[in-house]
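tool=predict chain=A
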Amino acid sequence: MKVSNSKTFFVCQNCGYRAQKWMGRCPDCAEWNSLVEETAAASFGGKGMAMTLAGENQPQPINSIEMIEEKRLKTGIGEFDRVLGGGLVPGSLVLIGGDPGIGKSTLLLQVFHRLSEHGHKVLYVSGEESVKQVRLRSNRLNAVSDNLWVVSETSMETIQKMMETTAPDVLAVDSIQTVFTTELSSAPGSVSQVREATMHLMYLAKRSGVPIFLVGHVTKEGAIAGPRVLEHIVDTVLYFEGEHSHVFRILRAVKNRFGSTNEIGVFEMKDSGLSEVANPSALFLAERPVDAAGSVVVASIEGSRPILVELQALVSSTTYGNPRRTAIGVDSNRVSLLVAVLEKKLGFHLMDQDIFLNVAGGVKVDEPAIDLGIAVATASSFLDKPLPNHTIVLGEVGLTGEVRGINQIETRIAEANKMGFQRCILPKNNLSRLKAPPEMTLVGVKTLEEAMEEVF
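tool=predict ok
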């Protein structure tokens, strides 16, 4: 949309839509009372910044560009390096989002402490806490070092001067919603200020080669606050997930220009801070009940890592007119679809049953490979028949009741074998191209009915 030549315009603080006059409801995202008046005095990216970059680069053939492998900067925290794709890339801009109090600042402070221990000079800019508050948290985390510099500042121009005077190897800004530039008259946290400050930091990272971390607030829907363009500007977007009632935290990469997307790192929240979990499968299955109806173990692929998780289903007679379908950690629509397949193809009478499904440990799993596990767990609870011990279930289920093949089956079975499972129910299509480990029995099934006959 072309910006008006008038001195002021109105910007939606939810989606970034611009209008020439105020409206009670944003016509783009339908949010009420979200349009705020802002001035159009400064151009996007800053006039001086645009002049600095103009004329510096010229087009060239792609085959004439020299291939130089970037040396990544290891943080010393294995799970964090895994999510980044092997470490920090020089000049990269990394955005970390998550719910308030989930541990974003704690994670960054621990990462910076590890970097400082390896001789790197790091600068932590806090816009929400004073330096005394940061020091109190660093004492609790035992993250105190001579190379870890902290400052409380919100001015973009002052942060740029600090970069020139201190010359850090890594910079963190916590959070980007508190930073403002004097080129704009709007308040800190507005769409224009967040976008402009991010552009300044992006140019600063590319020009200096210093990796920069940004901490971003999230909305009530779970997305990073501010316009969607914020996620397009940065190189990497990490989401820090987890329930406050659980001790596990998951760092997930949803965008990464230098590595795999959907890669995850698992951490455990302790009194002394976040501790990385090297073997998540063993942790998630540590409290799994034995011979319990409704409990099924499935293997999920998160990025390049296989993780075994426990699906728990509870089917009971409803006391209301409409039966409840509650799913935590999996897609509720997918659960309703599989319940309908069980009713239609296997004759299970579930219309008058409440069905509750949960992924133990507070993990969220979203891939079709766990379909067969959901169906088997539901049938196990409905029939009150536990699965045989040391059995794992894999496969996608279609609407006609067929069991479809899944990807990375060798990786999943290798992880199950490592965790001591001796029997695997999997799609027959995958079985024909798979060599079974000596300690494991593989059973291929073509339909959901065959799978039920094998496990019960």
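The radius of gyration is 26 Å. The chain is about 30% helix and 25% strand.
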